[in-house]
Amino acid sequence: MKAEHALEMPMSAVDDDCGRPIDCAKRRLPTVAAFVIALASSIVLTLAGCVSTEGIASQAKPIAASTVGIADAATASMPAIAPDWWAAFGDPTLTALIERSLADSPSLKAAQARLARAGANVGAADAARGPQVNGSFDATRQRFSENGLYPPPIAGSIRNTATLQASGSWDLDLFGRNRAVLDAAIGVERAAAADRDAARVLLSSNVARTYLQLVRLVEQREVASRSLAQRDELLGLIHQRVQAGIDTAVELRQGEALLPETRQLLEALDEQMSLARHALAALSVQPPNALDALNPRFAALTMVSLPEALPADLLGQRADISAARWRIEAATRDVDAARAQFYPNVNITAFVGLSTVGFDRLLRSGSEQYGAGPAIHLPIFDAGRLRANLRGKASDLDLAIENYNGAVVDAVLDVADQVGSLQSLERQRREQTLAQTAAELTYDLATQRYRAGLGTYLTVLNAEASVLTARRLSADLLARAYDTRVALIRALGGGYVAPATPALLAERTALAQP
Question: Are 209 and 483 in contact (CB under 8 A)?
């Protein structure tokens, strides 16, 4: 090649096909290159401007406590509910059943497994924030192309190649994406912990309410047994009066007809008691017939005192509301992570190792290779994928907030219903006590008059019907009083103690206050 032709080459030194160096000289290409670079930069900036978060944000707001009518309620009368609240009922059998259920329940173990899985996700998210180092070794036997990158004698030969290398990278997380992912995982983990505690409260209350249902049935059976004995005694009196010619066969048949009716009621109560025992056995993870001999009574129970007003700190006493709050926190951090994907991702990468053609040279001097440098990824045009992802995360946040609002409304309704029922039941029980006392006295008088021949058997039957109704209603009201207390304990959180309120949620809630 002639020297004068070399003056037309670019400034950078290159080799021709034979490997001979070619000199370079200045020309106007740098000006053209600068123009091309400026034009490309303008295009990049324009396209990057299209990938923006403008117009995408969550619209929902957490509900204010005053909206559902609990902001001004006093907390002074609200006693702390112990985590083992069932012990306050004073029944060792009930305590043993609940504690066994909490220890062996598959549903609680499943909730614990979900919590462990969420904890593993937190560990994975936290690990992504630190440096990553990997080692690799590969060995290959291959034929090298005669027209490829390698010159003879490697070209066209079959040789062994080997690479032993360590590589590392570190995402600098300049815009907080990895931190937001970690925070979201922590929120999910804490929501799972609250879900586990909510399942614990629900299980213990279900065991207690089923137990109280069995107590009610046992008490009802006792009333029916007393009624059967009473009617059998009365039938004996009718026989005596018929033999004495005082009563007729009509009264005798009426007295006899009442016995099968009472025995049928006893059989129905036995069936319900059997089903309740089976349910308790299943809740406490025992064989179905393990509790066949269980006959609990109200006398073994102590009535628990509970508040009669909505507590102002209700929102912090229920595990389901706490879980909903943490899901808002997790969804908020997911939005932050999705928003951070719009910004450059900067990684520092490096590698060091050995690479040779031929296994025998791998550990020889001169086989080493190494390198380091930044890797920057900037979204320019992705056909709307990032914006769609951000819209989805914002919608998830709206959904989490509205689920939280719904949980708050349901919780307030639940507590209000139980408080209202509790107040009404106390009044009903007072009136029922007076009614039962009057019915018992009326029945005693009617029986005495019938024995003395001063009254009719129809009067006795009417008085007896009133007594039986009063006794059953008293047992039902007492059972409902206990059951409502358990339901109110559950509605008030069942002894759950919430962790600290997430800072971001507290801020959003404060902004939502009127």
Answer: yes
First vs last C-alpha separation in the chain: 86
Pair type for strands 158-171 and 132-143: antiparallel
pLDDT tens-digit profile of 185-214? 999 999 999 999 999 999 999 999 999 999
The pLDDT tens digits for 420-436 are 898 899 999 999 999 99
Contacts 24+ apart (CB under 8 A), 438-444: 439/463, 439/466, 439/467, 439/469, 439/470, 440/467, 440/470, 442/466, 442/467, 443/467
CA distance 376 to 341: 13
How many angstroms separate the CA atoms of 128 and 275, rounded? Answer: 53
Q: Kindly provide the residue ranges of all beta strands, DSSP E only, lying in 96-195, ordered along the sequence.
A: 132-143, 158-171
Three-state DSSP at 307 gives coil
State phi, psi for 371 to the nearest 5 degrees. Answer: -175, 160
**Which one, of 45, 127, 74, lies nearest residue 313 by Cα?**
74
Residue 200's alpha-carbon distances to 17, 107, 132, 299, in angstroms, are 78, 9, 40, 27
> How far is 209 from 217, CA to CA, in rounded Å?
12
Gap between the Cα atoms of 234 and 293, Å rounded? 31
- Averaged over 30-57, what is the pLDDT? 54
Kindly state the greatest CA–CA separation across the chain: 153
Q: Where are the domains of the chain?
A: 65-129+173-342+379-512
Per-residue pLDDT tens over the stretch 281-303: 999 999 999 999 999 999 888 88
Distance CA(419)–CA(422), nearest Å, equals: 5
For the stretch 150-153, contacts whose Cβ atoms lie closer than 8 Å and that sit 24 or more positions apart, written own/partner, are none
What pTM, to 2 d.p., does this model score? 0.75
Identify the DSSP state of 130. Answer: S
Report the alpha-carbon distance of residue 328 to residue 326 in Å, rounded.
Answer: 5
The 3-state DSSP composition of the chain as helix, strand, coil percent (nearest 5) reads 60, 10, 30
Which pair of structure tokens corresponds to residue 512? 């939502």
CATH class of 65-129+173-342+379-512: mainly alpha
Reported confidence tier of residue 404, pLDDT bands at 50, 70, 90? very high
User: What pLDDT is recorded for position 17?
Assistant: 40
